[in-house]
Write a structure and sequence with these properties.
Radius of gyration: 24 Å
Helix content: 40-55%
Largest sheet: 4 strands, mixed
Strand content: 5-15%
Strand order of the largest sheet: 3-4-6-5
Oligomer: single chain
Distance between the termini: 43 Å
Shape: globular
Number of helices: 17
């Protein structure tokens, strides 16, 4: 949330005397660590790998499922250690995975089907020293594509990825449903689109609106099943809500709820610690700055169980956080500290507490002369741009009678604000009752969600 001096300045735009505090001086070292590839970006880059090896897809093969579970645990520890500040070297780690690879191209519903022999064993040894090289090494060892890393991290590597990894170029033909699941671009579709005249928003909606409506209608039974599963788990665990960070497909969300349901059947007691909480399925497990329980969708049940067991310690940290916010408020003349809620938690509870603690210590050292309660009634908002974004999302949803409007995690608040402002200037009857996702390219998802690029083009005025 506070990744730059600009955002930090926005936080105090109404308090000129505090502008002398520089972000680089107060942010802890871990906040700037591993600029080349963050932990969340590494998880996203490894989605094709997780999709191929996740134990949930090996229900009929207990031996292979167990091997993958154990290897994923060891891989998780390796990746966590890579992100720790000050690490020097890691012990080489040998891993074995069973990779799903055979896909039924004749499947009528477009879903992946694994045959009885639809996997192969892959062994490799990790001895890398950074996240990027680790991700590339894993994907290449499993003969999985790496182009999406090059396209989304153009500043990370200046040379082609095949040169960086020393691996030969091997074209892979992926099933259409792979791109629907991961959100990656289909190169065949890109080539087809490039040969056509530049697409405009109105022309694309006109050509794809009926298809989206049909898919949305077909997905309604599964969406109802998702609501049923969500209600059952919420009642069983007495949760406030269940949410998702990403725009995963409805079938994938149902699978995640089934996975949580199986864990509740196997070991209910630890999960009862989440009573009254909101569970968010996201990229990593932990607790968000808002106190939401984050379940990493690529983690195995062992990690989820360990998180639920640790919840009491997180609740204690929450109480300390409230006291810390009160202390900062007192030091700043009664101003209220506000953290804006969003479904893409950028900070964990530990990170947010560490950040506020550092800031509080800086205030104590500087002895800023505020009269008690002189700023009472004002709010210190950690990201003003997010407030504007939420307002525009609500306005756009209302104007176009959308069922839902959301964005991909790779879309920044600045891009979302620009997109919504331009959308509000348009008349778009095709969007009535639809699910609209702001992304980087046009597509109709399997469940009928419409994806449009944030920088969509309007009609050319002649």
């Amino acid at each position: 949330m506070l990744g730059s001096c600009c955002a930090y300045t926005e936080m105090f735009c109404h308090l000129r005397p505090l502008r002398r505090f520089c972000l680089e001086k107060i942010l802890p070292d871990w906040f700037h660590y591993s600029r080349a590839l963050s932990g969340a970006e590494a998880v996203n880059a490894l989605r094709p790998f997780y999709f191929a090896v996740h134990p949930d897809f090996f229900g009929q093969h207990p031996k292979e499922r167990e091997v993958n579970e154990n290897s994923l645990k060891r891989l998780s520890v390796y990746l966590e250690n890579l992100q720790k500040p000050g690490f020097k070297s890691l012990k080489p780690t040998q891993l074995t995975f069973y990779i799903r690879e055979k896909i039924d191209q004749n499947s009528s519903d477009g879903q992946e089907l694994v045959s009885t022999s639809g996997f192969r064993a892959v062994k490799f040894t990790l001895h890398t020293r950074d996240l990027l090289s680790t991700v590339l090494y894993i994907l290449n060892s499993c003969s999985l594509p790496v182009d999406h890393i090059q396209s989304s991290n153009t500043n990370v590597h200046s040379q082609p990825l095949k040169e960086a990894t020393g691996m030969p170029d091997r074209p892979i033909k992926w099933h259409k449903s792979y791109y629907s699941f991961t959100g990656f671009k289909d190169p065949d579709e890109d080539l087809e689109h490039a040969s056509k005249v530049e697409t405009t928003l109105m022309s694309w909606l006109g050509s794809n609106g009926k298809s989206a409506v049909k898919k949305l209608k077909n997905s309604l039974p599964l969406r109802n099943e998702l609501d049923r599963l969500k209600d059952e788990l919420s009642d069983l665990l007495q949760l406030s809500d269940i949410r998702w960070q990403r725009g995963w497909g409805v079938a994938h969300r149902c699978s995640q709820l089934h996975s949580l349901g199986r864990l509740a059947q196997q070991n209910l007691e630890p999960l009862q610690n989440a009573k009254g909480c909101t569970i968010v399925f996201t990229d990593r497990s932990g607790m968000s700055a808002l106190g939401h329980v984050m379940l990493g969708t690529m983690d195995v049940h062992h990690h989820w169980t360990r998180l639920f067991e640790r919840l009491p310690s997180y609740f204690d940290l929450q109480r300390r956080l409230v006291a810390l916010e009160d202390q900062i408020s007192s030091l700043l003349g009664g101003i209220q500290v506000v953290y804006i809620e969003e479904l893409q938690p950028a900070l964990t509870l530990d990170e947010y507490y560490s950040l506020l603690d550092t800031f509080c210590n800086q205030l104590l050292k500087s002895r800023v002369p505020f009269h008690p309660q002189s700023l009472s009634g004002l709010q210190m908002i950690l990201n003003r741009l997010k407030v504007i974004e939420n307002e525009l999302i609500q306005a756009s949803t209302k104007k176009f009678s959308l069922e839902k409007l959301y964005k991909e995690p790779s879309i920044s608040s600045t891009q979302m604000v620009d997109c919504c402002k331009r959308l509000l200037e348009q008349s778009l009857p095709y969007l009535h009752g639809m699910h609209l996702c702001i992304s980087h390219f046009y597509s109709v998802m399997q469940d009928g969600d419409l994806c449009i690029p944030w920088n969509w083009k309007g009609e050319v005025v002649k």
